[in-house]
Amino acid sequence: HRPSLAQGCQFLASRNIVHRDLKPANVFLK
């Protein structure tokens, strides 16, 4: 059993939380 899917979901979820903590302007700069 590869936990890649579970880890991927956790990774994306954690990234979303981090991006929400960042200023929205940072997203628009990209």
Protein described:
This protein has 2 helices and no strands. The protein has one domain. It has 30 residues and is mainly alpha-helical. The longest helix has 18 residues, at 4-21. The protein is elongated. InterPro entries: Kinase-like_dom_sf, Prot_kinase_dom, Ser-Thr/Tyr_kinase_cat_dom, Ser/Thr_kinase_AS. Residues 1-30 form the Protein kinase domain. This is Protein kinase domain-containing protein. One of its GO terms (molecular function) is protein kinase activity.
Quick overview of this protein structure:
The chain is mostly helical and 30 residues long. The protein contains two helices and no strands. One of its GO terms (molecular function) is ATP binding.
User: Percent of residues in beta strands?
Assistant: under 5%
Enumerate the spans where pLDDT stays under 50 for 5 or more consecutive residues.
none
Radius of gyration: 12 Å
Averaged pLDDT, please? 72
Output the helix-strand order.
HH
Distance between the ends: 36 Å
Q: How many domain regions? A: 1
Share of helix, binned? over 70%
Basic shape: elongated
- Quaternary class: single chain
Largest sheet: none
Would you tell me the structural class of the helices and strands? Answer: mainly alpha
Counted by DSSP, the helix tally is 2
InterPro entries: Kinase-like_dom_sf (IPR011009), Prot_kinase_dom (IPR000719), Ser-Thr/Tyr_kinase_cat_dom (IPR001245), Ser/Thr_kinase_AS (IPR008271)
Protein name: Protein kinase domain-containing protein
Domain Protein kinase: 1-30
GO molecular function, one term: protein kinase activity
